[in-house]
Amino acid sequence: MDIKVPHLAEGISTGTVVTIFVKEGDKVKKGQDVLELETEKAIAAIPSPEAGVIEKVLIKEGDKVNIGQTVISIAGDGSAGSAKTVKQEAPARHAPVETKASTQVLEEEEEAEEPAGPSKNNLSPAASPSIRKLVRQLGIDLNKIRGTEPGGRISLQDIKNYIARLEKGAASPKSEGQAPSRQAASAAPSIDFSKWGPVERKPMTVLRKKISEKMTESWTTIPHVTQFADADITGILALRKKYADQYESKGARLTVTTFIIQALASVLKKHPIFNSSMDEAAGEIVFKNYYHLGIAVDTEQGLIVPVLKDFDKKDMAQLSKELSGLAERTRQRKVSIDDLQGSSFTISNQGGIGGAHFTPIVNKPEVAILGLGQGVKKPVVINDKVEVRMILPLALSYDHRVIDGANAARFITDLTAAIESFDEKKLTIQESGKSKKEK
Question: Is 400 a residue of the active site?
């Protein structure tokens, strides 16, 4: 019996082995965790499907593995039946993994010569349903395209590059003996910085590489615009001071972020385009009837965005508890893959660190993200009189393919108004099935 890397979540095709809990000869129970994989930004435990004895461990910590790859062999009754399977799969298991640069070079070298057909391991190339639908509509053989994402996954950019090369080849055929240009496909050249002084090199972590990939994809494929505003949170701070102790007694930490999230729910429902996504393959805008909020959390390993599900259906006490718990689990890297997926809008709060307005990058496939800066006291003219108020910087970045500037201006104006006129009744705490306003 072989333990293989299971399908963990949509869009995830590879993982990195973080911890191996067993060794050869160990007895395991059905459902016992045998290893941990780091996938995307979460760490997932892989259990044993049956009880038995560990016959062979085929991976080591730090190895990159693909979905369907055999990682551990188990003998249920001490027989050597599973060993045969291990030997047959060993060559593929230990085959070298192509880097992004080498894969792109291979594409150019084989684009004219490689015939259509299934991949060498007879498996369909890794690609999302929207990508598969697009290539069917275009009449392109998916097996002809080399994926440049982790695990050979095919992206929209890979399809664009493939079509561009076909068009270029049709317009100007290569002369005999002329080598194809690889400059565009190769990664930026490595620079020897030690020529100018002492340096120290550290390998990028799996999480940092993933953040780099996601940010690059979002920035290069989404035309960003950022709308700025200032919200007067003097009233919110007064309410927080009034109710903080009462919320603490209920195990809920009342923060400014909780107020912003509560105000955001009604504004998103008034402006549904901000809770949508663009289906590029189908040429459609998908309006979501659910409200799941991505919360950017600063951790020692890097930025992670867990998701607060159905935040529009939760009261202030629920939001306070869940927000605090979700952030803590994220910092400890104890969030599940499900905790990191499904967001329809994201908030990035830098107020606890410092700084004012900034330009957050849209968390694709969402179309907008709200950035919160640090609140500061400023002089404000109210009724022709100057007063000192606490002002919170707001920064709304959005996808200009989907959202127009006028829509963004209306959205942030309504959000500012919702923050500045926050209804004290929303601080009601549910007790014993009855609504009770704490006094």
Answer: yes
CATH superfamily of 100-171: E3-binding domain (4.10.320.10)
CATH 3.10.310.10 fits 224-430, yes or no: no
In this structure, whether the domain defined by 2-93 belongs to CATH 2.40.50.100 is answered with yes
Predicted confidence band at 172 (pLDDT cuts at 50, 70, 90)? Answer: low
Catalytic residue among 94, 271, 292, 400: 400
Query: What pTM was estimated for this model as a whole?
Result: 0.63
- Confidence check: pLDDT of 310 > 90: yes
249 vs 96, more confident:
249
Q: CA 335 → CA 34, 38, 146, 201, 331, distances in Å? A: 19, 11, 32, 30, 9
Q: Which of 71-80, 96-105, 137-146 has the lowest mean pLDDT?
A: 96-105
